[in-house]
Amino acid sequence: MGPFTVVIVDDVAIIREVLTELLDTAPDLEVVGGVGDAETAVDLCRRLRPDIAVLDVHMPGGGPTAAARIREVSPDTTLVALTSDSGPGSRRRMAAAGVEVYVVKGGPGSELLTTIRTAVGSATDPPPPDG
Questions:
Q1: Burial letters for 98-127: b for 16+ Cβ neighbours within 10 Å, e otherwise?
Q2: H or E stretch including 83?
Q3: 13 is in which domain, residue-wise?
Q4: Total domains present in the chain
Q5: What CA–CA distance (Å, rounded) separates 112 from 128?
Q6: Which of 68, 46, 49, 57 is closest to 9 using CA atoms?
Q7: What per-residue confidence (pLDDT) applies to 119?
Q8: 63 within domain boundaries
Q9: Residue 80 maps to which CATH number?
Q10: What are all long-range contacts of 64-72, with beta carbons under 8 Å and residues at least 24 apart?
Q11: Phi and psi at residue 79, in whole multiples of 5°?
């Protein structure tokens, strides 16, 4: 199995660039696209069906809208919210839209890598046997 494919969605180009550089250091992750708004993100995920989509909560078109629509067009994509807004309302909206994990911007890059790997691992691991 090859590396997990990743789409990065953030309206700030430098953040997309930094995240791409960070994720490109990981041999098990491959960034296949980066866009800055919800509508373009949905179209990209419809076409590419990435393993992971890293979504900014406050982007043009809205993170929750992007998450819900990506969930419809690419149901197997693991959704990771990345934002500076760690408030409970934001978390609830993103969770309701199908986001599996939430990472606050500004933390160490290793935290994002670990979170992505954990989310994808839990999404691909078989359920435990009934006991």
A1: bbbbbbebeeeeeebbebbeebbeebeeee
A2: strand 78-83
A3: 4-122
A4: 1
A5: 26
A6: 57
A7: 86
A8: yes
A9: 3.40.50.2300
A10: 64/93, 64/94, 64/96, 64/97, 65/38, 65/97, 66/9, 66/38, 66/41, 66/42, 67/94, 67/97, 67/98, 67/99, 68/97, 68/98, 69/38, 69/42, 70/41, 70/42, 70/45, 70/98, 71/97, 71/98
A11: -100, 125
Q: What is the DSSP letter of 29?
A: E
> pLDDT tens digits, residue range 69-118?
999 999 999 999 887 766 777 777 888 888 888 888 888 888 889 988 88
> Token pair of 66, please?
């992007």
Q: Among 8-12, 61-65, 126-130, which range has the highest average pLDDT?
A: 8-12
d(CA 104, CA 83): 5
